[in-house]
Amino acid sequence: MRKILSGLFAFCGAGLALLMQVGPHDAATNFCNWMPFWQPCQQSLSNWFDRWAWTFPTTLLGAALILCLSPFAIRVLRRPGGRPRSRPDWPIFHVIDYVVNDSKATLKQPRKPWIEEYGPFKGRRMIEGGVEHMDALNNVNTMLVDGRLQIWGHREIPSHIAFQFENLLREIPKSYWEHWTLHPLMCFHESKTRSQTVLIPGHLSTESGYSGLMLCRQQVQFLWTRKSAWRRLTERLRRKQRITYWPKLETIGDSVGRF
After folding, report:
1. The whole model's pTM is what?
2. pLDDT at residue 40 above 80?
3. Model confidence band, residue 246 (pLDDT cutoffs 50, 70, 90)
4. Which terminal Cβ of the chain has fewer Cβ within 10 Å, N or C?
5. So what's the pLDDT on residue 2?
6. Annotated domain spans of the chain
7. Quick check: helix, strand or coil at residue 124?
8. What is the pLDDT of residues 121-144, one digit of tens each?
9. Residue 167 three-state SS
10. What is the DSSP-derived secondary structure letter of residue 147?
11. Dihedral sign computed on CA atoms, order 229, 235, 237, 241
């Protein structure tokens, strides 16, 4: 849809540029010369154009205005009043990546690299990683606690066999987050065999963990607005790299235990 709108906008822009450069009558004459039936077009042009000359620039200007305003109109129409329509269509790890790299959210930033002065890493250059992702995870967790964001997942089955989860994708109630929180490692990776929620230390609960967490794309983009098209374009032209979180799933291994 965006490519079609861009093409139409470019066509209208070219028409307006031609109109401003050579004048309405010459622009229409050139248009007839491009047509396969150019002779009948030019013969009927003089009488028609004297009467309806104003329609050509008016149509192009109206089309340009419609194309300029259409993205905003589509965004408004897709965003109903109140909370957007709920539908589980965005995995938790994609949500975190969107908040960090593609949204206007103001997140905590890592400190500048430093030389460690104490401990086993003394004299080494240290780099702090994952600060933006952990802050984005905390922001999502806050929205879940407040009930402003819905989330779905596969509930863990209490069994002597570890890591068994239901096939049913069910909505997690708001009360669940009084004792549970998002896992600080597993939520950055796709996980269907490990729980992506963990019990808050010091809390007791009869609930189970959830895996395969999904959120609603419209709700996420409603809470964290997407960067403007111009900003995304400039970042792409500057070849700005996306911020990634350092832990890899293979390095976590079994050391995370049963969270």
Report:
1. 0.64
2. no
3. low
4. N
5. 54
6. 2-78, 90-256
7. coil
8. 888 888 888 899 999 999 999 999
9. coil
10. T
11. negative
Question: Over 70: is that where the pLDDT of 64 sits?
Answer: no
Please name the residues in contact with 168: beta carbons below 8 A apart, sequence gap of 6 or more. 154, 155
Query: Distances from the Cα of 232 to the Cαs of 98, 131, 223, in angstroms?
Result: 13, 22, 19
Give the containing element (helix H, strand E) for 90: strand 90-91
Q: Which two tokens stand for residue 64?
A: 């340009």
Nearest C-alpha neighbor of 180 from the set 156, 205, 211, 159: 205
List, for residues 235-244, the tens digit of each pLDDT value. 889 988 898 8
156: left (phi over 0), alpha (psi -120 to 50) or beta: beta
Distance spanning both ends of the chain, measured CA to CA: 43
Q: Are 153 and 214 in contact (CB under 8 A)?
A: yes
Find where tokens 């993205």 sit: 71
Token pair recorded at residue 26: 């010459």
Task: Tell me the longest C-alpha to C-alpha distance in the chain.
Answer: 90
Residue type, 132: E
Nearest to 100 by CA among 216, 218, 224: 224
Q: How far apart are CA 126 and CA 121, in angstroms?
A: 8
